[in-house]
Design a protein that fits this description.
two-stranded antiparallel sheet; two-stranded parallel ribbon; 59% helix
Length: 263
């Protein structure tokens, strides 16, 4: 009988009394700093045709739209049964409640807004954002792991970890699975695709579809949201949304090839 690791990581990096620096927040700060550096690299390569001084504006726009999208999706898709009776908690994000699928919709909307403001092709913006976003996704999942949240289903696998809020049984560290597939593997694939494509839109379409595929697979190991459970006795809300992502990404690729905006 294997001895399973007991998760006892402290989510607080530095406690200054009224102010705390948490690993989760730090991970996202580092992710956005890396994204800014990589965007400058894309500008210098003439892949992303904007002045470097516009990069901070793009990142700020994306943060705002992603946050609004992530919160709206969690409230209205994942947990409306609670918030419909607790409207005062709609903005209480410190209690938790953000959805990556909603963040992605916000990302797409933010890219459209930035493109219109700067007279750019939407696909040019989204391809650039897709290429630089995966390190942040990896770091964000590491933050989830340190927090001991979004853990997986109960398992007797030697990879199982006992999480303090997950009961006495070992569970899949699905945060680590997600970080590996959605962060590292997806990032490598997108940068490989970048070397081969000649038009904008294929990279961002591939990002949406491949994320959908990876997340669909990982949902079999991840604990479903307690308030939703399973649909049709076998799939989660996350997997339903992943189906939509896969086909949306394919649609983006087809549309981009017809649009033929050359890099």
């Amino acid at each position: 009988m294997p001895t399973h690791y007991v998760h006892n990581l402290n989510p607080v990096l530095l406690d200054l009394g009224r102010v705390q620096i948490r690993w989760y927040g730090l991970m996202y700060v580092i992710g956005f700093l890396i994204a800014g550096y990589m965007l400058k690299k894309l500008v210098r390569e003439n892949f992303f045709k904007i002045p470097e001084e516009k990069i901070d504006s793009l990142i700020t726009t994306m943060i705002i739209f992603m946050f609004v999208g992530a919160r709206a999706a969690y409230v209205f898709i994942y947990n409306w049964s609670y918030y419909s009776d607790n409207l005062t908690d709609l903005l209480a994000v410190w209690k938790g409640g953000l959805s990556f699928h909603g963040a992605l919709v916000g990302l797409l909307a933010g890219g459209y807004f930035f493109a219109r403001q700067n007279k750019l092709a939407w696909f040019e913006v989204m391809d650039s954002v897709a290429l630089v976003g995966t390190p942040g996704m990896f770091l964000g999942r590491m933050g989830n792991f340190i927090n001991g949240e979004l853990y997986g289903r109960i398992t007797d696998s030697p990879f199982g970890i006992i999480f303090r809020d997950g009961g006495p049984f070992p569970r899949h560290p699905s945060q680590l699975y997600e970080g590996f597939l959605e962060g590292l593997v997806l990032g490598i694939l997108l940068w490989t695709i970048k070397k081969k494509v000649k038009v904008y839109g294929i990279i961002s379409g591939a990002f949406v579809s491949l994320y959908g595929v990876f997340r669909f697979i990982i949902e079999f190991f991840r604990e479903p949201d307690a308030q939703l459970g399973y649909y049709f006795g076998m799939i989660t809300m996350g997997q339903i949304l992943c189906f939509l992502m896969i086909f949306s990404g394919i649609g983006m690729i087809i549309y981009s090839r017809n649009k033929n905006i050359t890099i």
